[in-house]
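Figure caption, in words: inputs first, then the predicted bound structure.
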Amino acid sequence: MRHPLVAGNWKMNGDSESIATLISGLLEIQCEADIAVFPPHIYIPLVIAGVGGSSVAVGGQSASEHKAGAYTGETSCQMLRDVGCQYVIVGHSERRSIYGESSQQVAEKFVVAQLSGMTPILCVGETLEQRDKGETLNVIAEQLGLVIELAGLDAVCKAVVAYEPVWAIGTGKTATAEQAQSVHQDIRRQLGESGAKTRILYGGSVKAANAAELFLQPDIDGALVGGASLDVSEFSEICKLA
Ligand code: 13P
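Bound structure (1,3-dihydroxyacetonephosphate present):
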């Protein structure tokens, strides 16, 4: 019922040459899962042109909560949509922790993204300290709750949710399949009946070696992959496992 999605978040990596190599590799992937990649904004048109005609979708890693105006350095959702993006990531933990994005701002970004016609990928996740204190489910319920309050449950159910435990991002420490499943199950419970159709991705040190076990879990519908998405053969393996 839920079609798997494997999303590659390239973060601030790559140049014209390495991205051309990634594009040719992406075009060769044959798999059942939907694929989306998130290049740095400046390379988005290049990637869209490169994957044009294939089933690979392209999205933005972040966008402004404002529609237009005097916001130096920002990119609007409308601009991302205008150049052909289908998705936009909102609330990535690096945006929350490094750039101080508040949960309120994340919720506003979600609304603007969804109104622009793109599918938001809403990231939620706890820090190690919060996990150790047993606060994981509360933290995630609060992050999700604010977006539901502002955007409405229906809009969130139509989007994609990504559970990315902060302690598993770029650290090589993946949540065990059981740890991830229990959070995914709780997210789906919070989404209610319509949440049965919502794709919930897992992110945090996903590699070909650990993807199969994660994808076996009933509430894990794919992955949001960081580092491993820069290696196209690794990424291709993950896509085939989903
Ligand atoms: P890594 O796969 O490098 O841990 O990054 C995960 C992530 O942040 C994807 O958005």
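Residues 9, 92, 164, 169-170, 203-206, 224-228 surround 1,3-dihydroxyacetonephosphate (CB under 6 Å).
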